[in-house]
Design a protein that fits this description.
6-stranded antiparallel sheet; 9-stranded mixed sheet; alpha+beta; F-box domain-containing protein; 24% helix
């Protein structure tokens, strides 16, 4: 997609252009972006300049936004697509949905704190596909992955098959209130597996998290729940032992505290450990040991002991430690 000329000169040797790119990137990433879109040669020069992205996040609601954080100057670029409300509609496998055809325009917001306290914005006409934009940004900022895909209000308007095809999988998926239970289920079916998942029961039919989610292996599982769901769903699947790998699970809760342990553990054989009893828990991969103070012990169906811990700072959450042989380090007094 050819762009208008920029202040970066093309008549210089490549080594000098690359140096100019590095200097310009400290004050104007939009200038670098425009230059990279002129030709494949320009894109190659920007890529060679070695600008380093710190993260790439995608948020999907009424529109799609790609946010890129840049290491060198703590700057941020945001790209907004599909802002035109009556465009892009077509028929997909799940009915009439917004298709990820080439967006008509792109709004680029740039924030460089070392240069200005304000955000600089620019609107660009566009003929390139969404897939092209994602690949281009990943290439010029030398960051080949997506850290987070966040689904929020009205994201159900988009075709989930197109989302999967363009964005693939991310390290983390965060499902907020999209406005459609069925779409949230489709996210789990199409975007999972991922390393990290953030969900809330209220965003699913009957406020029930699909049991298979609790039986999968995640490095990080964030569930915003209350006492009733904790009792009926989560402890059941943790006790069942169908997900044998995780040593640790953390669950954010809005209203669960240690005094509620009898409610949470109702119907499950357990033992309350005094708060002054401290045990060392050693995760795999040489991570630092954790000291478990008190808690509630119970045995999973596979015979492995687990402990439920309550934390109330800075906000309530519940943690589960699974005492595999390599995790046991003894008591500390």
């Amino acid at each position: 997609m050819a762009q208008e000329p920029t202040h970066l000169p093309l008549g210089l040797p490549d080594s000098q252009i690359i140096q100019k790119i590095r200097e310009t990137s400290l004050v104007s990433l939009q200038e670098i972006l425009k230059f990279s879109l002129i030709s494949e040669r320009c894109k190659g020069l920007v890529t060679t300049a070695g600008l380093k992205g710190d993260s790439i996040n995608v948020s999907i609601g009424r529109r799609i936004t790609i946010t890129i954080s840049i290491r060198e100057n703590s700057s941020e670029l945001q790209f907004h697509y599909y802002r035109e409300p009556d465009m892009y509609w077509g028929v997909g496998a799940y009915g009439r949905k917004k298709k990820l055809t080439a967006p008509l325009s792109v709004i680029v917001n740039e924030y460089i704190p070392n240069v200005s306290d304000t955000t600089r914005s620019n609107q660009m006409k566009n003929t390139s596909t969404m897939q092209y934009w994602l690949n281009h940004l990943q290439d010029i900022f030398n960051y080949p992955k997506i850290d987070v895909i966040w689904f929020y209000e009205n994201s159900f308007e988009f075709d989930i098959d197109d989302i999967k095809e363009v964005f693939g999988t991310a390290t983390q998926v965060w499902i907020s209130n999209t406005g459609c239970y069925a779409f949230n289920q489709m996210i789990l079916q199409n975007i999972i597996p991922v390393e990290k998942l953030s969900i809330k029961p209220a965003n699913f039919q009957n406020s029930e998290i699909p049991g298979r989610i609790l039986m999968q292996n995640f490095d990080y599982l964030d569930i915003d729940i209350g006492i009733p769901r904790m009792s009926k769903n989560n402890i059941y699947f943790l006790r069942k032992g169908s997900n044998p790998q995780p040593e640790y699970l953390g669950i954010d809760c809005t209203n669960v505290y240690e005094d509620d342990n009898e409610v949470i553990m109702e119907g499950i054989s357990h033992k309350v450990i005094p708060a002054d009893h401290r045990r060392k828990f050693k995760p795999a991969e040489n991570k630092m040991p954790q000291v478990a103070e008190g808690g509630i012990d119970f045995f999973r169906n596979d015979g492995v002991k687990a402990t439920i811990l309550f934390r109330d700072l800075p906000f309530p959450d519940v943690e589960m430690l699974v005492w595999f042989d390599h995790c046991v380090m003894g008591s500390v007094f």
